[in-house]
Amino acid sequence: xxxxxxxxxxxxxxxxxxxxxxxxxxxxxxxxxxxxxxxxxxxxxxxxxxxxxxxxxxxxxxxxxxxxxxxxxxxxxxxxxxxxxxxxxxxxxxxxxxxxxxxxxxxxxxxxxxxxxxxxxxxxxxxxxxxxxxxxxxxxxxxxxxxxxxxxxxxxxxxxxxxxxxxxxxxxxxxxxxxxxxxxxxxxxxxxxxxxxxxxxxxxxxxxxxxxxxxxxxxxxxxxxxxxxxxxxxxxxxxxxxxxxxxxxxxxxxxxxxxxxxxxxxxxxxx
Length: 271
Description:
Distance between the termini: 38 Å
Number of strands: 6
Strand content: 5-15%
Radius of gyration: 21 Å
Strand order of the largest sheet: 1-4-5-6
Structural class: alpha+beta
Oligomer: single chain
Number of helices: 10
Low-confidence stretches: 218-271
Mean pLDDT: 77
């Protein structure tokens, strides 16, 4: 987040509870810490918001698996890396569940850009100078641009303050209700720049995207060779050792396996 935007957060001395801390001078509409904390508790830690987020992820993930099977048809298809396959598919599903479908319509390479940034994140967090790792900061800046493009499009299509959407848990432009609430929160804080808002939402996407990493890490697929056939299912050769140590998953069972893992990792049940 740009330093000037970070200072706005630092200036919020009201705390995260309903009652502001003593001697707090932060106006109610600029209590970013409290408002964000309330959003997380009400939308991501239980209730209808979390349930809908879970349902959207499972729906999106199952749809993508089905589409991939249709693309494959009746021919063998070789996937060089099951790890990357699962990582990519789960990231797209989690991001659509959180941010809606339009973020990918305006940023078709969002997944590639995101994982490029993620690979550089340890260096950035260690505060390695930009001139030492220019590619890392270029990747981060590209992701900020992607989110700003989505914000601009979403504002043009849907008013985040529309009372008619108050009880709508998910829609394709902003995605989950929490993202509309965050957009509405920032409308009252003019000091936060578009780049600062983008950085904040990129952090949201990164945090929720780690659920996908839990899924494929928990599954322990490793770096194996994967073959997929629409009738006989998916064949996975761990560590590229070939058919001497392979395990096969029928197409439907493979999808159910990964959907089940989402529940193990805390996404909840889908109705």
